[in-house]
Fold protein-serine/threonine phosphatase.
Amino acid sequence: MAIEKKTAAAACNLGHANAILAVSRGRATRGAAPWIGPGIRTRPGSFACPSGARPSSGASPLAQLGRAGPACRERLATDPDGDVSGRTDGWGRRKEGKLRGREKKIDASGHVVSNYCRERLHVVLSKELRRPPSDLGEMSDVDMKEHWDDLFTRCFQTVDDEVSGLASRLVDGEPRSDPIAAENVGSTAVAVVVCSSHVAVANCGDSRIVLSRGKEPVALSIDQKPDRKDERARIEAAGGKVIQWNGHRVSGILAMSRSIGDRYLKPYIIPKPEVTVVPRAKDDDCLILASDGLWDVVSNEEACKVARRQIQQWHKNNSVTTSSSDGGDGSTDPAAQAAADYLTRLALKKGSQDNITVIVVDLKPRRKPKNNS
């Protein structure tokens, strides 16, 4: 039976580089590895790819997968006709590019690392998910948590090594091992794998994922800031300093304590993600994945309330039924898109001074359309 995943994205460029990816509305099948793909820009504020398309670039990483067995102990797959949404943003100039006949935006300077993350992170994660341990079906919850922790850590470390020039990468079929960006360029990264029984979250930086469960917000990630007691202790143990300079900053420079890239601040800044695994519940409404441009001015509770209301309002006002095979417009779920757009406008209205990136994932299998009879 297909599990419906409905996703939409919205964003506004104002600041630090972040990247987001979402795989949505895939019909899950057993016995094969998942495909995790990126998104392409189709209109201001959102990214999406039509059914059947597998673009070669997109945003880093929200990876949403379909059905799984108990406690995520089965290998996962999404049908090739699953849709993809995502968004990247950051500072720096932009240049135009072409991808599968559609226009996309690529930053020419500050986006180097986040662009690389969107090209590679989902590929590395997909490879890791194709290699489940032989005893996966016998794992305890503790072992399962360790499995996800190891998987995400290998994925993030691999991409960071490639960014930093510590591992070779292929460029036009030829191996290269030079850094892909200046030493002072980096990106946040947050990844989520959603199956029918559990949600696994990996966070590196200060983007955040919040689950709307019933009427309560459940934070699935913790912002990695230098003023966190444990993060400050780790930084100082490595020989670094946290300096108050317009906020707490590593060496007085970076306002987050973990990232991909930023090699000039290593070993104080690390790419190791913090991983959380939580069981799904029947009253799960939606996921909100966003950069700190939203969370700086909108609380978890308000964001969840707004997202729920916007999704419900869209279905109340429209007779379009969204399902696993069609999001209403063939590319993104319009109800989730309305929620993401509204949250972005809300953050701007509240005076957010940072970049704003929002993705909303509707976790309900099916929303009833308006009854016109």
